[in-house]
Amino acid sequence: MSTTSRPSLLIRPDKDTFLNEENPFEAMMSRFDYAAERLSLDPGLYKVLRSPEKQIIVSVPIHLDSGEVEVFTGYRVLYNTSRGPAKGGIRFDMQVTLDEVKALAAWMTWKCAVVNIPFGGAKGGVVCDPPTLSLAELERITRRYTSAIIETLGPDSDVPAPDVNTNERMMAWIMDTYSMHKRHTVTSVVTGKPIEMGGSLGRREATGRGCMLVTREALKRLGMPVKGTKVAVQGFGNVGSIAAQLMEDLGLTVVAVSDKSGGIYNPSGLRIREVQQHVKQHRYLSEYKEADHIANDQLLTLECDVLVPAALENVITSKNARDVKARIICEGANGPTTANADRILEEKGVFVIPDILANAGGVTVSYFEWVQDRGGYFWDEDTVNQRLERIMVQSFDEVAAMADRHAVNSRVGAYMQAIERVAAVHRLRGMYA
Ligand code: NAD
Fold first, then answer.
1. 342 CA distance to ligand 1 middle (Å)
2. CB 207 within 8 Å of CB 332
């Protein structure tokens, strides 16, 4: 890409506007606080679990294609590694701040614990604007950032993955850079890699598949049928399109889907493979002819039984929660529901499958990727899917049991389950001093 039209590459200093009430990360931490209180967590342990273990800030100098030097800022936060190596994505975005990275690293800690995989939580990011950077510049940023944080990286200490604006190509560069420093190939240092170099079959579909599996379990729990149950899915990217396709395969009727161009609706059911084909050819849903067109926010309050927000954070708020008709919300996206909306949904008796459970299929198959890389033995796709199913179903049941035991909703139940698991390991390990 040409760099001539590049806007100024000014690096934003840490924003101090973080953590207001509608902020999804603050919403997550306030749910953590509530769950910790319900568990009567020991105040000392509470302090430990509220604090990130390690925060790294690095400068990432590179030569731009023009020959100029630019210095980007990178972060890596290891929030908690008591249960195993830190696991969490790396995002490239102008919005990245240390506080955001800290909160996302905490989020990963609870997500890994809720599905009981032996990882702690981490997150990383580089403050940059990928659409204005060439592939070669992105490669130089990725490699220099990797070498800057190389002491923490490693299959036994910290295992990154893709996140906003990073992809399997960048994971390949991270793996290569790390391997060059170690003088031998280390595939298990990063997940979300291309299949050819140690990626796992089933990883691309894993988050959507997990959403389908926990929705199926929720229907069972609420005594609702699968056949004819109507679903609306917000977002038609990796998570939304796969969740919609697998839910249709299961026998549900997908009545609406949307992307950033708008939504499409057919009360008797869309044909999801045809819609996927359309998006492959035309990119957006807005040109799709075989259904009615609806606005994005209309989708959230449509007549349906299951709503899957799988696009953005903060879309179900105190403004529209009262109008939600669905009986079940499966949170494919991270943080789609605000804390205020939670209260309204609970009053209405909506069953929310919280993000840290609903979209944990992705990190679960990342764990499988790490296991396969370390073992040097790769599983077929059916094996990956069966093992994912076992973990998702068991985690759903454990969260439901925790919620029942403490008479709380499933979001609080999920946080309680996660905190209890991390706290249990801290108690057993004791305090090193
Ligand atoms: P993606 O970029 O593949 O897809 C996002 C989709 O949302 C696109 O179809 C986009 O057009 C649509 N969208 C954007 N703005 C919209 C709007 N205003 N209304 C409706 N649709 C809109 O991203 P993804 O990987 O599918 O991730 C979606 C969400 O799931 C994010 O919150 C992400 O953090 C979360 N998540 C993803 C994974 C994963 O494995 N991909 C894992 C866990 C959580």
1. 21
2. yes
**Is 15 one of the catalytic residues?**
no
> Nearest to residue 133, comparing CAs of 123, 145, 120?
145
Q: Give the pLDDT of residue 341.
A: 93
Distance in angstroms (rounded) separating the CA atoms of residues 15 and 13? 6
pLDDT tens-digit series, residues 412-426: 999 999 999 999 999
For residue 260 and ligand 1, the question of a CB distance below 6 A is answered with yes
d(CA 112, CA 15): 28
pTM over 0.85: yes
Residue 17 banded pLDDT, cuts 50, 70, 90: very low
Query: Whose alpha carbon is nearest atom 21 of ligand 1?
Result: 259
What is d(CA 416, CA 419) in angstroms, rounded to the nearest whole number? 5
DSSP 195: G
Probe residue for ligand 1, chosen from 117, 164, 204, 238 as the CB with the greatest number of ligand atoms within 8 Å? 238
* Tokens coding 330: 């499966």
Q: What is the pLDDT of residue 313?
A: 86
Find out whether 18 and 100 touch, Cβ atoms under 8 Å.
Answer: yes
Structure letter (DSSP) for residue 252: -
- Displacement of CA 142 from its chain's centroid (Å): 21
